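hiii, so i know i said id send this last week but things got crazy w the move. better late than never?? heres the sequnce for the chain we talked about at the cafe, plus the structure i predicted for it. fair warning i was half asleep when i ran it
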Amino acid sequence: MHASITIKILGLLLMFFSVLANLPPIVVSLIYGDDSVSAFLYPMVLLFGIGFILWAATARSRKELSTRDGFLIVTLFWAVLGTAGCLPFLFSEQVQLSVTDAVFESLSGLTTTGATVISGLDSLPKSILFYRQQLQWLGGMGIIVLAVALLPMLGIGGMQLYKAESPGPVKDNKLVPRLAETAKALWYIYLFLTVSCALAYWIVGMSLFDAISHSFTTVAIGGFSTHDASMAYFDSAAVDTVAIIFMFIAGVNFALHFTAWQQRKTRPYFSDPEFRFYSFILLLVSVVTITVLYFSEVYSSFGESFIRGLFQVVSVATTTGFTTADFSTWPLFLPYMLLYAAIIGACAGSTGGGMKVMRILLIFKQGIREVQRLIHPRATIPIKLGREVISDRVVESVWGFFAVYVMVFMAMLLALLATGLDIITAFSAVGACINNLGPGLANVAETYGHINPAAKWILCLAMLMGRLEVFTLLVLFTPMFWRR
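okay and structure toks below
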């Protein structure tokens, strides 16, 4: 453990964040004249000053990061920056939030959860709305990839930070030999998808402000909107279609996007087992949802059942969290099936949450292998993804993650029940926050503003757990981590 290098990187991240998060909303505030410049100017100066002090005090440190340093820095990144992001909400005169609500909203934004405590979005200043959307974009991939790209230039090795941050069971694969180039490649893809999504939204009828704002949260799989009604505000099949396409794309492993772009072919997608399983899950859940909606006569036509059902399935299953309908009131088992789809989540290496499709696929294959072993107990049966044999160590790590995930889920569910929430609200709130989904069922279907402060702090921890994929945070609480 190197305390000086940890403090140095945290200082750099605070300086990056202070400018990247607050300067664009200041520009938006000046353009629209909403008198909110001070709500962002004061936090920018304050955070930059704190970051500069931390960096200056440790500027001469040139030690290489260890794996433990990476875990600590990534955890501090989300916890400290997520908390620091609450300052504009506290300084703003138009948004009257308590400290608890401000921290909740900020962490929800930066972790791309999309759970909100704010109502009356349509009447808020444009700069505040833009800030919420931008928080999710920065949290999706922007800041951490940018930081990893810049750290080698500053004499700080970033490989351990990359390994601690990368989602999914396999964390050591780099797209190109140099880590900085890997980070740049991912960031360019992320930026290209954001620009493309904004242009598509604008072409189908959104205002330029809404198009840019919603492109941030679509590609980041965040789910924040500039309107209380979310995507239902636009009441447009064209807007819904654009959102469906880009939510699906953003839920795919970004390394796969890079490979396809580099080869100028679509073959890498269809030869990837995780992508095929991801597509199969979305297709299966969509067919069931649309069928139930149509025959239950929730909507007047098949066309409306199709677009509403498909949109909500892709939004929830990728853990984006946009809504065009209150799916919590849909008939039969649909609300719970969608919540289970969110637990599966998007692909490893995407901006989505959930357990990740890769892990579910490996658990499924391991289950099949155990059944086969009952028939042939002496057989050696490897688990394969495509032509690649997966080592038992990876399978063990997936099962370990699943076990810890279930235990953490149950502990947080009991904690929420202890605060007085009903079982449906508590279960869906934990599921929505630990999987970085956002909307839940019952009392958290639209906003989390009505639940008690203790429950909000528990859910803040759940959002961090989800973004850090449980182990990255829990490892800090083990004695072994702090031993030399």
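btw The mean pLDDT is 88. thought thatd interest u
miss u guys!!
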